[in-house]
Amino acid sequence: MLDLSTGKEGKLIFQFAAPMLIGNVFQQLFSIIDTIIVGNFIGKEALAAVGASFPVIFMMVSLIIGLVMGTTVVISQYFGAKDFVKVKRAIDTMYVYSAGAGIIVTAAGLIFAQPLLRLLGLPEEIMPQATQYLRIFFSGIIIFFGFNGTSAALRGLGDSKTPLYFLIIAIVVNIILDLLFVAVFKWGIAGAAYATIIANGLAFGLAIFWLNKTHKLIRIAIKGLHFDREIFRQSIRIGLPTGIQHTLVALGNLALLGIVNTFGTNVIAGFSVAIRLDNLSTIPAITFSQALSTFVGQNIGAGKTERIRSGLLATLKMAGGVTIATTVFIVLFGKMLVSLFTNDAEVIFTGNQYLTIVSIFYITLTLMFMYNGIMRGAGDTFWPMIFSLISLWIIRIPVAWYLSGKIGAVGIWWSIPAGWLIGLILSFIYYKMGHWKTKAVVNLNGNL
Asked: Going residue by residue through the chain (448 aa), what tens digit of pLDDT does each one get?
């Protein structure tokens, strides 16, 4: 566990962010390798089916992800205040509601998988594989919640290394099973879904065993979990806006996918590939934002709010440098990267076109994430939600719809940085206003 309230701000944030960055990169690399295996051993229809499935998955789990993020803020602030009894109760509370949510989401996913895909206007040749993939994935969603909830709790305590170890185990097992189930056993897209569930289940099981044996604050067992209503209320206050934001962002992505779907299988497949590489490229911004949130949470809990500005400046330098390097790499080698997934010329053209346009504006996304990270760490998640919804539903989706009708699929790609730019402007203005300083969970006796 790392105390981020004492020591050089930039060094601490980098020390905390580095394992998270490695873990997130590994996670996206797994997703990329998984997609490469599907694209090369099954075909572009399966590639498009997997790509079409992920926005649906994200929509179904977004609310719970937001609530878990809210609990992480609560954990980090109580940890900064050295209130370890409430830290333990917050972790227990997260496990209780995550288990209940897992059961509900599993049932909803199994029932509504195909209707959601039909609502998106998915081409008929892709529908059977996408439906099969979704239903298998949702059958193991409770494992996903448990594994990711454990990682989030550890990060709230300042421990970003332990989640990395178990994540690497999950990824290695997943890749091995992917090759076995898809390339050797010829189970098709179902094999890819089963590989993901089994790998996450194994990693979660190992995490339970190790943490119960060694950790001071985290004990994962059905018996003895304590559900704290007040901590749950605090988690809801902080996490619900983020969960709603993620859900509406997911719905926005579905709406965007609906526009993409009108251009046929080749564009869907190219978009699916580009999204994988896009997600990998934006990991540094997301990771440094998460690290900054934990840094802010712990320092607010410790009553050391004067350290926040220095932490922000240090994080902006680190994340900005990595983002610029990533943009240059994508612009130079984007076509080569897309060609790893498929040899179809139209799919490669579409994927590279998306990456070239969007990557130029990664720095805009990075700056937006940093300011939102400050607000979330402070416990102020309502306005970041509003800004995200404005940038998505008032800017990105209408622009995508309008431009795609005028200039084709390329208009969709241009709508994405347009939304980022508006989100950045709104987030920066709100950060400068300073209202986020009044949203702490802990009692700071007027220190804010």
From this structure: 567 777 888 888 998 888 888 877 877 776 777 777 887 888 778 877 887 787 788 777 777 777 787 788 788 878 878 888 888 888 888 888 888 888 998 999 899 888 988 887 788 888 999 899 999 989 998 998 888 888 888 877 778 788 888 888 888 898 899 999 998 999 988 998 999 899 989 988 888 888 788 877 677 777 777 888 888 888 888 778 777 877 777 788 788 888 998 898 889 889 988 988 898 888 889 889 988 988 888 888 778 888 888 999 999 999 999 999 999 999 999 999 999 888 889 999 999 999 999 999 999 999 999 999 898 888 787 888 889 889 989 999 999 999 999 999 999 999 999 999 999 999 999 999 888 877 666 554 434 3
Give dist(CA 218, CA 251) in Å, integer.
34
3-class SS of residue 42: coil
Distance of CA 326 to the CA centre of its chain: 19
The angle at the Cα of 277, spanning 271 to 282, to the nearest 5 degrees, equals 115
Enumerate the domain spans of the chain: 9-438
Residue pair 284/326 in contact (Cβ under 8 Å)? The answer is yes
Exposure string of 361-391, with b = 16+ CB inside 10 Å and e = fewer, is bbbbbbbbbbbbbbbbbbbbbbbbbebbbeb
Q: Token digits for 31?
A: 């997703």
In 3D space, the residue among 352, 384, 33, 289 whose CA is nearest the CA of residue 177 turns out to be 33
CA distance 376 to 440: 10
0.85 exceeded by the pTM?
no
Mapped onto helix, strand or coil, the DSSP state of residue 171 is helix
CA distance linking residue 274 with residue 283, whole number of Å: 14
100 HSE (CA, 13 A, CB side): 9
Contacts of 142 (CB under 8 A, 6+ apart): 99, 102, 103, 105, 106
Q: Rounded to 5, what percent of the chain is helix, strand, coil?
A: 85, 0, 15
Coil/strand/helix, residue 96? helix
219 φ/ψ angles, rounded to the nearest 5 degrees: -130, 120
What is the C-alpha separation between 171 and 221, in angstroms, rounded? Answer: 25
